[in-house]
Design goal:
With about 90 residues, the protein is mainly α. The protein is built from 4 helices and no strands. The longest helix has 21 residues.
């Protein structure tokens, strides 16, 4: 299930919720989407989840600028580090 902007705006609109509770709920949305992806998920489904995650992170940015910016920058970097080479051999 991909969360829509309506659901995100609904959480942002709650006046009685603290900012932390709103961020937690948005992270639950993001977590739920990523947990439902599997090895059988299509590229389209993965792309839709990525787009929805970006919308969620932008919503978080409206609450906490530092956290939202960090999430967006991390998503945009999209680079993975190569595995560490272990050139040392252990002899017993």
């Amino acid at each position: 299930m991909v969360y829509t902007i309506d659901k995100i705006n609904k959480v942002l609109g709650y006046k009685t919720w603290s900012d932390i509770k709103k961020i937690d709920e948005l992270f639950k949305f993001d977590c739920d989407m990523h947990c439902n992806l599997g090895t059988d998920s299509t590229k389209f489904e993965k792309l839709e989840v990525r787009k929805a995650s970006r919308k969620i992170y932008l919503a978080i940015k409206t609450i906490d600028i530092k956290l939202g910016t960090l999430l967006i920058q991390t998503m945009d970097s999209n680079t993975t580090k190569p595995p560490i080479k272990n050139d040392r051999t252990i002899s017993v």
